[in-house]
Amino acid sequence: STLMNCLLKNNRSLATEVAGTTQEPVVGSGKWKNFNLHLVDTAGITKNQKIKISLWKSCDLAWAVIDASLPITKQLLQIVNLGEKNNKPLIIIINKCDLVKSRTELEEELMKRLNSMNFWPVVYLSALKKVNISSLMKIVEEMVKNSQKVLSKRKIEETVKKMVEKNPPNFWNNGKLKIYYAKQEPGLIQNFIFFINDNKWLHFSYQRYINNYLRKKLDLKYLPIKTIFKKSI
């Protein structure tokens, strides 16, 4: 709630020291430099308070705001798990960073929980003291910029060719995957559609390799990549 009020420059959401003050979603709109913001402040996630899936599905970008002064709980990481499940673009915000002397244990816990989703950006800030807010918005700006990146057909062809040459598919289910070509659908979720010989020869580990390779070589920093495989005759 404090972060929302800080960004909108007004007390749109009631912020108090008492946990659970926000019960229903609070909506507010404003402007931050070149961004038109439409923010939704949801209730804190607890055992009794779940995130509303409809809000999650309709947002363009999700922020998981974690209190740095409290232990990381399973409930707080529900939104992170939803990000992995639905390929939702996400920023993990560690609020009240001024109350923590060392970030080491917190960072180690986050990395352990994030596991293969460690491309998500993590920002440390203090919404109350307005510390590091600009870093958060800089990451938002970079994500939006990358989401608008339209790759040429030649660039995609060259990238896919080098990707396969570096790590060719292994035999799986009595066959071997062959990629004919791919195309991109840009956005905050980067969709890459691969036309292949047969899905039954695609191993999940090779799909993960493709995702990681594309993000690195095409400079799609922070964005989730969704790969779709279609059988081509």
What does it look like?
There is one protein chain. The mean pLDDT is 84. The chain is elongated, with a radius of gyration of 20 Å. Helix 4 (104-114) links the parallel strand 4 and strand 5. The protein is 33% helix and 23% strand. The strands form four sheets. The protein has a three-stranded parallel sheet, with helices on both faces. Strands 8-9-10 form a three-stranded mixed sheet. It has 233 residues and is α/β, with parallel strands linked by helices. The chain has helices spanning 2-8, 53-58, 78-86, 104-114, 133-147, 153-166, 204-217; strands at 26-32, 35-41, 62-67, 90-95, 122-124, 171-172, 175-176, 179-185, 190-196, 225-231.
Task: Provide keyphrases for this structure.
233 residues; alpha/beta; 7 helices; 33% helix
- The side-by-side strand order for the widest beta sheet comes to 3-4-5
Count of helical regions: 7
Shape: elongated
Which range does the strand content fall in?
Answer: 15-25%
Number of strands: 10
Give a short account of the largest sheet: 3 strands, parallel
Give start-end ranges of low-pLDDT stretches. none
Distance between the termini: 53 Å
Mean pLDDT: 84
Q: What's the helix-strand series? A: HEEHEHEHEHHEEEEHE
Helix share bin: 25-40%
The value of Rg in angstroms is 20 Å
Structural class call reads alpha/beta
